[in-house]
């Protein structure tokens, strides 16, 4: 009901802007929308951006598993679902090759998940990084100049033929989604990670990116009438925001519906960046790490993550900054609690992180009101995991309600196991004695159970690779054991 009411005021606001109602009426409507309980409609814009790649949970999830996760996401307050076809390691699935390879498998799965999201009533958003192409399109004559923020399977859209390759890729993707019955509601573009070209002709990249995106948007509209154009401000500089806003106002006025501004690690608010006219200010919220950025507890490499203090503060700070929508950046189900925290607070359903956590324990661990408080206290500690007495936490965990057959329960048990081993390794000095090696083996045993039995993840690549494990003893253990991972 709150959503329906909000949607109406949102419609009126948009109409007012489009029709140029700039008098007291529009002002009054804007005030009402901003002050309404439950944050008003625009503030309820809440997207779960769940890229399936690198062997993460989304990449390997079956259709039924994904439906369950999206149903729960909707329960907590998400109303949009986004995915990115990260073409890394993939050859062109539309090349006509009769082999059904990784690119085909990943793309078909994405189509299925979009259909599921659509059936559940969620808006559907294809995220793109325009000049990131398939591996078999990396012809030397087209290669982009990389360096700094620019890396990946990139070709230059200013080199003869390069732009055509990029546009044909999007023609294929949008047409294929439409054939599969997916009616995309949004296209969201990001210039970096993976994207960009440092060549002279592409400078400044942000404008080349804007031009390229405008062409892709035209293709998208042909296959998905009414599709909206959004942007993600991940890694943009202040100067890039300024150039981009000017360019959009001149060439595509009113087309940019929102800009999800980047919140750097450890921060809880967005920078005051210039935006194109009528472009809504949204925020890209990284839910894959704990309360603090350092020491790193990120991407599930050291178990599930929780950030009750950070997310509560982020929601409050963003609201104070007039941010009207959030995009949760999620890399798997290890951030399940953070998913609930962000949407539960952003939607206005819950007032505090503690209330969300109590609701979470009641929903998933069959805890009554009293026992849900035990869970709330236990989980909250892990917001700062490196300060937890893991042995004590492991002991008290066995007294919490819930059961070992449930993945939400089991992931926290294994997190406590991993940290108990980690703390013992740190406490045992610098030498790799048999006892200390045994602790390391316990750590990796718990890690493997988590990855294979609980999450069922695939071959983990890139940010998820063990070689990037950010624990102080890891490099020396690797050297000592001459491990290849
Ligand atoms: Zn270039």
Compile the SSE list and pairings.
Layout: H1 2-18, H2 24-35, H3 40-43, E1 45-49, H4 57-60, H5 63-76, E2 80-84, H6 102-119, E3 123-128, H7 162-179, E4 186-189, H8 205-223, E5 228-233, H9 238-251, E6 256-262, E7 280-286, H10 308-320, E8 325-329, H11 336-346, H12 353-364, H13 369-381, H14 390-397, H15 407-427, H16 434-455, H17 474-481
Parallel strand pairs: 1-2, 1-8, 2-3, 3-4, 4-5, 5-6, 6-7, 7-8
Zinc ion binds next to loops.
Task: Describe the overall structure.
The chain has 17 helices and eight strands. It is of the alpha/beta class and 485 residues long. The chain has three domains: 1-41; 42-359, TIM Barrel; 380-481, no CATH class. It has an eight-stranded parallel barrel, surrounded by four helices. Helix 8 links the parallel strand 4 and strand 5 (228-233). It starts with a helix and ends with a helix. 46% of the residues are buried. The protein binds zinc ion. The site of zinc ion has 7 residues, from loops.
Number of domains: 3
Mean pLDDT: 91
Structural class: alpha/beta
For the terminal residues, how far apart are their CA atoms? 51 Å
* Unreliable sequence segments: 1-43
What characteristic shape results from the CA principal axes?
Answer: globular
Query: Sheet bearing the most strands, described?
Result: 8 strands, parallel, barrel
CATH superfamily of the largest domain: Glycosidases
Which distinct ligands sit in these coordinates? zinc ion
CATH architecture of the largest domain: Alpha-Beta Barrel
Q: In the CATH scheme, what's the topology name of the largest domain?
A: TIM Barrel
- Strands of the widest sheet, in order across it, are 1-2-3-4-5-6-7-8
What is the H/E order? HHHEHHEHEHEHEHEEHEHHHHHHH
Share of β-strand residues: 5-15%
